Amino acid sequence: MVSTVVLLNVNPPQINQVAAAVAEFDGVSEVFSVAGRFDLVAIVRVANNDKMAEVVTEKMLSVPGIIRSETLIAFRVFSRHDLENMFSIGIE
Question: What's this model's pTM, rounded to 2 decimal places?
Answer without folding.
Answer: 0.84
